User: Fold these one by one.
Assistant:
Number 1:
Amino acid sequence: MDLILPTSAARLRHSSMSIEHSARPQISCERIHLSTFAPDSISREQIQEHERSRPEYFEVKALHDNLVDRSVRGGTVTIFGEATRFVLRLGSTAVLSRLLAPADFGLVAMVTTITGFVGILQGAGISMATVQQERINHAQVSTLFWVNVALAICLMLVTVALAPAIAWFYNDPRLTLITIALAATFLLSGLAIQHSALLRRQMQFGTIALVEVVALLASVLSGIMAAALGARHWSLVIMSLVASATGLILTWLFCSWRPASPQRGSGVRSMLIFGANLSIVDILSFVSRNADNLLVGAVWGAGPLGIYARAYQLLVLPLQQVTFPLGSVAIPALSRLHDDPKRYREYYYRFCEVMLAIGMPIAAFSIVAADAIVLTVLGPQWTACIGVYRAFGFAALFQVFSVALGSVFVSLGKSDKMLRAALCTTISYLIAFAIGVHWGPQGVAFSLTVVLGISTPAVALYAYYGSPLRICGLLASLWRPLISSMAAGYVTWCFFGLTSDGSYAAAFWLTLQAVTFAPIYLIVWMMLPGGRLFLRSIAVLTLSRLVCRQARPSNRAGGIARDLE
């Protein structure tokens, strides 16, 4: 006898196993051979298999009802989690810098430079395929899990094989054991990739943020303890291992799905191609992010490179702490809406306006207050960094769009288009860097601004072609943040101009500039048509997270009983 079970709920009945010829519609179904079962009972093995597969992680229809609210709550908790991790990293750097010598950091950095590039292939983009697919089943995710594990083992073995070569290249035999130890992080991370993807697919961003914060906290505490006990550079290795191991344990604890054996013909070919394209995009992004450093260092030396790198880290990396978390929230939500063009457009334009409302004023303030920011944070010995930092501020105005454009390619499943766009932009970056390097670090920074100003509209047109989106809708999301940022920046510049050259005075002027810029930005925004309504809606959705508890998932026994009814 063949019993048809919907894969999304796997509804079985204890009391009666007779199959009724009802008119209820059936969604994607699997046939389970029950010839060995008694007609009025279900085997223990079948119930255990149902428990292990956890079909609730694959079903996403329930997410459609309150998608905007979930996204705002998810964005809030994700940004809060990123801020917490930033504080932990900053604190650990301050403490470990007093316990370890610079050479200890240098030894580990020599290895992480290599493992960082190899780690780009870690997820192979497969995790994003799990998040993006509208319909997915237990067999597919299980197969992808074992692909991730096999890839992680290969990367681990390759890294171990490269350990002697790395030690030979740097002429330091200590790097052999460091490389072998850090290679284990590939396997630990690979075992958690699909579980983390399932949590992200279900938009459980609070759980993801908790896992990341606790894993980082455990690694920081273990590293500080090891450094205090005299472990020297091994304390940094321990930090990496503890972070990966803790993340693995917590991810498996919060995600109760368990993989089955890999299956042929499970339909993962297209998902693997999707992931491979995203992996190549990551490699191209790695090349474009590091080519400017390579050129500045090769042509101008270590000093100008230090100025360039510090300016980049001071502006672009903190800005990414806001834009990337918002992008990670938007991709699962947009992926659920790609079959509903109207809702997709509305959500995307609102997402763009939220991101621009946060990122654009940061970039504008960085331009007008570049002197005060550099002198306050880095000190007066870094005055040469001011011009480079201000140039990066103009580039940041365009770079805010990159996350929004990437979310279109991924959510619509157009990884091949994203790969072609990434290839063209990478080539343009390399040409621009090669031209700008003749004028030093500031020339490279301005060349980045020019190429972003040209490539961003072109990529937007390419991304929106054949999609529900239109450039006019993006401009409608852009004009309020742009006008408000320009007005606040102009008034702040007119009032304060350049700061003085003292560290204390710079901090004082930076405070005055900040308390001037922020109110003007909000006032201008509220004076614009629709500005108050937009701010009110965002405030209501954000506060609802603080006063309302999100519905808890049912416990294991209750969930199984409901599915088996």
Note: Residues 302-335 form the longest helix (34 residues).
Number 2:
Amino acid sequence: MRDAWERVLPARASLYFRPRTKRNPGRMESTQPMRVHGIVNCDTVRRARAWLGERGVDYAWVDFRKQPPTVEQLRRWARSVGWDALVNRRGTTWRSLDDAHRAAVRDEASAIALMHERPTLIRRPVVEMGADIVVGFDENDYARRFEAR
């Protein structure tokens, strides 16, 4: 049976998926390298990256300023966590917007358009691992998801 699957799937395909366990149902499923999106000078991103680095969690870094997310990425993230969770209303970029721009963010389409125009409006960090998306940094949540990897 294994020989048949090896012909269909690439040799490394088994490295990227593992079944969900009853012991850890909330853990991220894919062993695919995860991507951490954010900006370098964000304190929350610094704390998240330091936490991941201290525990030896491998990830690929994506800087919003150098490689902004596409509209499709933003849509996928919004479907996963909700558009409201993606908009960083505490940051300096949000506070620097005029009232008309702030009031215009009423639904997913308007939020995505503004986040695409100004990626620093996205709450950070955004951790992508397969279909799983985590927004923001919470030590307890990260420990539950990543520590035993």
Note: The chain has one domain: 32-146.
Number 3:
Amino acid sequence: MQAGDELAGRYRLAGLLGHGAMGEVWRATDLNLERDVAVKVITANWIGEAMKEALARFRREGKAAARLNHPCIADVYDLGDHQGKPFLVLELLTGPDLATLLRRHPDGLPVKQALEYGAQAAEGLAVAHAAGIVHRDVKPSNLILDRQGTVKVCDFGIARLDGATAGLTGTGTALGTPNYMSPEQARAEAVTAASDVYGLGATLFHLLTGQVVFHCEDVLSVLYQHVNQLPPAASDLRARIPAAVDAYLRALLAKSPADRPSTDAIASRLRTLSITSCDATALLAEAEDRARTITDPDHKAHVLRETAAALVRIDLSQARAVLAEAERIARSITSSPYNRARALRKIAGVLAEIDPAQAEDLARSITDPYNQARALSKIAEALAGTDPGRALVAVGEAERIARTFTEFQRNRQEEILGEIAAALTRIDPGRARALLAEAERIAHGLNTTDIHETIGRALARIDPAAAEHFARTYTDSHYGQARVLQAVAKVLAETDPSRAQAVLGEAARNTPKPDHVIFADVLRNIAGVMAGINPDWARSMLAKTEPALRGHTDAYTQALKLGEFAEVLALLDPGRARVVLAEAEYLARTINTTTTPHNQMRALRKIAVVLCRIDPAQAEQLARTIPDPYNQARGLVSIAREITK
């Protein structure tokens, strides 16, 4: 072929755009329609019946591809022959392909951009798969950008021909493009839409990291690894790739086709990951920066620990780094040994989700027995699902510490026994029940509502009837009993909504004064649990509490209570919740900042967190108006955590 040749008397070749084992791609002019097009001419010299079948399939699939119509698929205009050589006439795309972009960004594209390109490619593939067409060669060079920057999937129909002919080894094994090839293709087995999903996963991995999934000098080693080796974590190759993105890449690259996501679900999932993970990452980076301007070490360690806890879902390596900084700062707290121990205990609780062994070491370094025991019970809870034996060791240590407490520390002993029992519910229900029985005996002599709630929640996971009975024996006050019943019902709602509704009804009957602020708080919490079970009942219950919440005379308390009211209302009526939050914000801004500056900032933070459930962008804007770095950073962290749920 040379410039000036006319194919089928219609397409005049103008210049060579590229070539490969299969053939050549030319820029050409459609003489009939007077427009520029791309022409792919198959120039390989083939012989034998297999080649005839491959050509017939090429023509058949070329016609099918021509019927595809989607913004993310390069248009196929025509199919023809020139001197016995088949050709396809395609939409001319002048933008770079993604392989070219990777050469410009050797460490990978920006995460958000890579995910969006992956989503657009998935949209195109989903349309093709719905029409029964499998691409078979998804890779960066087959994804080309148009003038608007939209990805176009190219070369439908060519890939199968390539795999069946020019990609044959001496042993007859189909190769295609090894770096992006699914295990079933590498084994020369049947190729389905799931094979394209794997190719898209391998492409996305390359876009995010700048590296192919498996890098070897020879093709057979690459194929072997696609079949037999688990892919590396993308975040190991490039820091700050969100953990949720890592997890989804593993799903796309699953060895079994049946374990990969359906193509029609991929675009939506990638965009969700882009919005939540990337926006949350930016918010958390901003929170880190604000935290480092805080002078009080207790507050600074608190914010960094909360930031790390949110990062666990997004970026494990960064979460670990932030926790290390939080621990260093916590150890510098001199205001109170107890405050230092409490800060270290909470850091150990987060660290348990990342590195249990390191968390255990940290817990054992805490000198305050109460905080050390609570840290060990939290670690045991984190280990219960993955390493029950190790969890039992941590539980044993926590229990031994709890039993050293004196008669005057019975409330602390009860609290720790309840937390230990909660950790044991999944691995040793019998022992958990025995510990809860002991905690119950202590609790009846203390009448401490918070600890009763802890016991009630743990007991509800083992023996719901016993949990209800325990709640009813709390006779300190109607208010306290209702709170414990509500805590039990919240656990029951996960598995038995009808039973939870009955318990919540009983709790509501135990709060006879909805116009009293204390009872109104309980009823509001009951309505929050009921919102997912019986919205009409919840709406009615919530309405009864509103007058009491508006009865406060000081702006700070009323702003907080309206924010709490709006938090439940957002589950039932987001539009009205937004109005209530606007009222709460107005009240918060009237708080006297001369005498109580922290009250205003605390109220604005809490309002921003609730607003995030309705309008994340407006919530961010509100959080950034908070001048205090402690409350602003905590607000940003809470918003990040909310949008990644």
Note: Confidence is low (pLDDT under 50) at residues 159-175.
